[in-house]
Design goal:
The structure is a single chain. The protein is globular. Helix 1 crosses helix 2, helix 5 runs antiparallel to helix 6 and helix 5 runs parallel beside helix 7. The relative contact order is 0.13. It is mainly alpha-helical. The chain folds into two domains: 51 residues; 144 residues, no CATH class. The N and C termini lie far apart (42 Å). The protein contains eight helices and no strands.
């Protein structure tokens, strides 16, 4: 498999450059696996976006959404195939909707209020593989999540470009869904994983 070829060769190169213990090597391999999965997923999504003529919109949404994702975190699919399917649907359907439709101002107001409240209540949401154990980090990510939500909301009501306005709004909506406890429950995944490590 291409994945194993990439991982094995990368690990051989890394091991040859520096002496690492087994735990460090496991962490590096996990990180490389994440990079590989992210790159392959993005390549597939971008190829499909070209087919559906939404390449620019998909690129913009990936950028706008992942800024929020980077500070608020949220649910991850338990299997890579489900991650690919859900990501493909999200990053193709949402840009298509954002490109095709315009919405009443009331939609932006309601979406902004609800998502802002959800960010205050639930961001950041960790995962079982990446629990936010450090309380200072959790607080920092909480502040950053709220700050970016505010920035997005301000931009929604100041930018006249409806495509950007829609992309910002749907990024807030999607990320809000991914940090909800009910979403974790629906997919039978543990929530607030850091609590397992509290003394």
């Amino acid at each position: 498999m291409i994945k194993e070829f990439f991982l094995n060769n990368s690990m051989s190169l890394i091991e040859g450059m520096h002496k690492y213990n087994n735990d460090q090597l496991d962490e590096i391999r996990y990180g490389l696996e994440g990079i590989y999965m992210t790159l392959t997923k993005v390549i597939i999504i971008l190829i499909l976006s070209l087919v559906f003529n939404i390449f620019k919109e998909a690129i913009l949404f990936l950028l706008i959404f992942n800024i929020l994702r980077g500070v608020a975190f949220g649910l991850h699919a338990s299997k890579s195939i489900w991650c690919l399917i859900s990501s493909s649907i999200s990053f193709l359907l949402i840009p298509f909707i954002c490109k095709t439709f315009t919405f009443h101002i009331l939609f932006y107001i309601i979406a902004s209020i609800i998502t802002f409240i959800l960010f205050i209540l639930y961001a950041p949401s960790d995962t079982i593989k990446r629990p936010l154990i450090n309380s200072k980090k959790r607080k920092r990510y909480k502040i950053l999540s709220i700050m970016f939500a505010i920035i997005y909301i301000v931009l929604i009501f100041t930018i006249n470009n409806y495509l950007i306005k829609n992309l910002l709004t749907f990024a807030l909506i999607l990320e809000s869904i991914l940090i909800l406890p009910i979403t974790y429950k629906i997919f039978k995944l543990p929530y607030n994983n850091y609590l397992k490590y509290k003394q």
